[in-house]
């Protein structure tokens, strides 16, 4: 354990590596982050951090003065500490997650715990527990979510409770829970499920927005213990609600400006005035920067060729953020502080070449010192820059994306078109990307396209692609591929397409539309048989979620058949390597089996990578390494 704690105890500096092999072990790109978070106690005397331990992790507390580890909290086999928070100087609040086969991400069952930093008074605050057979010992059959840490009350937190085995639209409950004795007081019951609630500094609801079971958007004020629906004629009815200032006078809201990119607005409860604070003409707001003392939004973050910050005031915290951001140009900066008066604050810095470094900022001394790295085996000087690109699609629409190039002395480069999932909402970002860096480290250029339907570029940009995943979106991908192949440093004919989820769908659909464009394709856990997928998807459950899905994907078999790659499989000329997991819940593996059967019936050759215990995305490190190895070999074989 000593080697894991050492980075927390000493202030280290970056150093350059000499004589390191250019091609790195694939394990470097397959391993998850070793450190995901580190937090400073309110009095600044302790660090808390999660660190890995075999097939689990532990939450450790280190006394800074003595460099002594006080405690290491953990759970059992394949059980993990999730989020954690300082409740006060002596007590931590944390959640429990599970590694579940078939799921790419760890699974949260709504369990919340608290414990003192000396190891005493460890208790479960909310959720189901396996510790006992009686109902009282098992706890609630409900999901618990930490809704708010109450800054003016260090003995309570706000928890949102959602019952198991009910539909997504059933009402939830909001509780104020004591972090020592787990006694709770019900604050409110939400007017419906699938709702976002903004609370004041005391945890009392103020305003909310959600969708009902018919898919209709509803908004509510919470007044005198009752929810009052906001009329569609009310000036506040067009917005999404972000947060409330501590004094309760300012409500921060967002909406698409003229159905384009997102704007940040401020509503003043005293004057009843709404003011537009920020809007970028080309991209949505990527993140908000809030002051820890007031909850005021002091800046917004946008993403183009790196991260840009747009400051809204000249407050003390705004100045701190500006100073730190200036020290790390273009980086994604997050500052974690318990109070604006804290002498020290934790700073996390992410770039296109760096998955994350943690620093300790001392505002009294005006110094910033390195603490540790999320992935200490990744050295930024060995990674490749992710360059912002744009091209015009066939109808003139400007499309953005990112191009990652390998070492420059070997041109022209073979090209990998790596298609992101979704397709509606997700986007490829400028941040460090393991897949892109893996391909670039092995000599391939990587193009990632934010086609229409992607998030980040406005409401119209996303909605125009609804019901067009087999047409408009594929045209954008194909147009981007042809644009890249025309570049001088890219080979004009050596290109392979790959991606997972919707990226897997596109990796089959685009070659069916343009049979001679791609030398090879590696579709991964994609929906190739849409008739089967739309009848068996986990999001088609009759709730407001499924109504939203039908708006995007269609609600009838005729449309699904038209958009299904299997409908056009006779046009296939491109060599395939099909990747799927046997426990995929989002896209059941039967879709891949149906594709396999169709290829076998046509005597079409293909390569097959099937892992029965994997889900929607490979999680096991050995399986991920095998996927990388076989993908590289397959691409090289067909792009010689």
From TrEMBL:
One of its GO terms (biological process) is proteolysis. GO terms for molecular function: serine-type endopeptidase activity. Residues 430-639 form the Peptidase S9 prolyl oligopeptidase catalytic domain. It comes from the Bacteria. Keywords: Hydrolase. It holds the Pfam family Peptidase_S9. This is S9 family peptidase. It comes from Shewanella hanedai.
């Amino acid at each position: 354990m000593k080697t894991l704690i050492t980075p927390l105890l000493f202030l280290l500096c970056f150093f350059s590596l000499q004589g390191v092999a250019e091609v790195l072990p694939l394990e470097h790109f397959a391993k998850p982050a070793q450190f995901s978070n580190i937090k400073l106690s309110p009095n600044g005397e302790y660090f808390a951090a999660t660190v890995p331990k075999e097939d689990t992790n532990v939450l450790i507390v280190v006394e800074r003065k003595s460099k002594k580890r006080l405690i290491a909290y953990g759970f059992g086999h394949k059980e993990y500490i999730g989020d954690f928070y300082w409740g006060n100087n002596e007590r931590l609040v944390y959640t429990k997650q599970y590694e579940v086969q078939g799921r790419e991400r760890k699974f949260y069952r709504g369990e919340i715990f608290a414990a003192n930093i000396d190891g005493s008074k460890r208790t479960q605050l909310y959720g189901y527990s396996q510790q006992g057979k009686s109902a009282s010992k098992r706890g609630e059959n409900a999901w618990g979510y930490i809704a708010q840490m109450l800054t003016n009350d260090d003995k309570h937190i706000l928890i949102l409770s959602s019952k198991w085995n009910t539909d997504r639209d059933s009402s939830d409950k909001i509780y104020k829970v004591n972090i020592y004795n787990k006694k709770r007081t019900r604050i409110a019951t939400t007017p419906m499920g699938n709702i976002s609630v903004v609370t004041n500094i005391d945890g009392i609801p103020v305003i909310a927005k959600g969708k009902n079971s018919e898919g209709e958007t509803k908004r509510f004020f919470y007044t005198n213990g009752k929810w009052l629906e906001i009329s569609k004629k009310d000036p506040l009815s067009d917005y999404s609600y972000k947060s409330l200032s501590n004094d309760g006078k300012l409500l921060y809201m967002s909406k698409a400006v003229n159905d384009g990119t997102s704007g940040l607005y401020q509503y003043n409860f005293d004057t009843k005035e709404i003011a537009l604070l920020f809007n970028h003409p080309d991209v949505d707001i990527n993140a908000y920067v809030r002051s820890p003392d007031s909850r005021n939004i002091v800046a917004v973050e946008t993403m183009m060729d790196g991260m840009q910050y747009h400051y809204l005031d000249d407050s003390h915290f705004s100045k701190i953020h500006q100073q730190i951001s200036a020290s790390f140009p273009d980086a994604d900066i997050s500052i974690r502080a318990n109070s604006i008066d804290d002498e020290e604050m934790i700073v996390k810095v992410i770039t296109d070449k760096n998955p994350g470094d943690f620093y300790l900022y001392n505002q009294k001394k005006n110094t910033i010192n390195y603490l540790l790295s999320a992935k200490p085996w990744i050295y930024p000087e060995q990674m490749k820059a992710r360059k912002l690109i744009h091209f015009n699609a066939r109808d003139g629409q400007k499309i953005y994306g990112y191009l990652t190039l390998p070492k420059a002395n070997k041109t022209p480069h073979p090209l990998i078109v790596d298609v992101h999932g979704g397709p509606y909402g997700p986007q490829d970002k400028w941040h460090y990307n393991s897949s892109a860096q893996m391909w670039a480290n092995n000599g391939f250029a990587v193009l990632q396209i934010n086609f229409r339907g992607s998030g980040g570029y406005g409401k119209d940009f996303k909605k125009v692609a609804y019901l067009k995943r087999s047409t408009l979106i594929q045209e954008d991908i194909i147009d981007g591929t042809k644009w890249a192949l025309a570049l001088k440093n890219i080979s004009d004919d050596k290109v392979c397409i790959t991606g997972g989820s919707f990226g897997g769908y596109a990796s089959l659909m685009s070659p069916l539309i343009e049979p001679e464009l791609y030398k090879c394709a590696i579709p991964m856990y994609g929906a190739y048989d849409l008739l089967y997928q739309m009848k068996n998807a986990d999001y088609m459950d009759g709730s407001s979620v499924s109504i939203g899905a039908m708006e995007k994907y269609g609600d009838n078999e005729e449309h699904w058949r038209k958009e299904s790659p299997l409908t056009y499989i006779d046009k296939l000329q491109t060599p395939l390597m099909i990747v799927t997991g046997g426990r995929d819940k989002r896209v059941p593996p039967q879709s891949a089996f149906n594709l396999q059967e169709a290829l076998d019936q046509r005597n079409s050759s293909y390569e097959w990578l099937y892992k029965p215990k994997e889900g929607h995305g490979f999680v096991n490190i050995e399986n991920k390494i095998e996927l990388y190895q076989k993908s590289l070999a397959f691409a090289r074989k067909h792009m010689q």
